[in-house]
């Protein structure tokens, strides 16, 4: 597995943050004037942004996390639903399945009613892959990260070797052991977790849900790779317990020297 470079991390993180805004002016971030397509959810709200430029082969698919009451309620649908209609040989979290299979409202002159989110994405990406030879990076925050993994795997099934990488931020688990076994992009998937982000431990069903890909844990000023969930939880809870005493260490006093003016 290749390493995730700092500039790539920053680019995807910024785009995931911007995805929550109503409008994203893609030309400010190096994409082409016509290099954006918005995929809306059933309420007509932006859910996915497909971004590309003319001078490189990368298309970035940015998926927003939960952003309405319906989305939040779906996070509790922890039973499994099959993904065979997308060509995938496993089941996933039923709530995230509903996000992908919901009808997508038209946002573009070429869009039409009656197709779901996955079908809309497939329609857009098929042109970019077949006509412009683009390769696809998927990124998303929270439930958007979970959806990104499933969509990336489905696109890879339809267009082999078309997915460049998958980068998620604060992502909950999306599938069980069957998904872990059959997921094709484990060597291209980076799951970024910051400190004790409680969402990354969800759903709270150990040995029922399994994470996929390589975890990059940002903790205590360092990056830890592939730290197990139990170790991550244990270290974080221990840190909480001893944190009040850590402020007594001289290293803390030395670190805070910048509070004082030079004389």
From TrEMBL:
<feature type="domain" description="Fungal lipase-type">
    <location>
        <begin position="60"/>
        <end position="205"/>
    </location>
</feature>
<dbReference type="InterPro" id="IPR051218">
    <property type="entry name" value="Sec_MonoDiacylglyc_Lipase"/>
</dbReference>
<dbReference type="Pfam" id="PF01764">
    <property type="entry name" value="Lipase_3"/>
</dbReference>
<dbReference type="InterPro" id="IPR029058">
    <property type="entry name" value="AB_hydrolase_fold"/>
</dbReference>
<protein>
    <submittedName>
        <fullName>Lipase</fullName>
    </submittedName>
</protein>
<dbReference type="InterPro" id="IPR002921">
    <property type="entry name" value="Fungal_lipase-type"/>
</dbReference>
